[in-house]
Amino acid sequence: MPNNQFKKPSITRLVDNLEKLNLVKRVASEFDRRINLIYLTKQAHKLQEESMVLAEETLNEALITVPVEKVEVCKEVLQIVYDNLK
Fold first, then answer.
1. CATH number, domain at 19?
2. What pLDDT does 71 receive?
3. pLDDT (mean) for 46-53
4. How many of the other CB atoms lie within 10 Å of CB of 24?
């Protein structure tokens, strides 16, 4: 019998934990009571904005000595790789 501590958490449990942290809110669907819609809270939106600012600052710092044309080539290659994985 497998050890339960190594099972991946279910989506329900992940959402439960995010809800406890006040990062998401469940709202029952008005069309189908079996469905819960999941929305980010204001706190989560603020955290998302702060994270995006930090990510942009980190990226700018990492690219400071990289010539612009090489950054563009890198973006093009990564787009091709991404498209190949679709």
1. 1.10.10.10
2. 93
3. 98
4. 19
* 65/67 Cα distance (integer angstroms): 6
For residue 77, give both structure tokens.
Answer: 């290659």
Domain holding 35, by residue range, is 4-84
E-assigned strand segments in 2-42: 24-28, 36-40
* C-beta of residue 35 within 8 angstroms of C-beta of residue 28: yes
Per-residue pLDDT for 27 more than 90? yes
pTM of the model: 0.64
3-state helix, strand, coil in the chain (%, to 5): 60, 10, 30
Number of domains in the chain: 1
- Confidence label for 9 from pLDDT (cuts 50, 70 and 90): confident
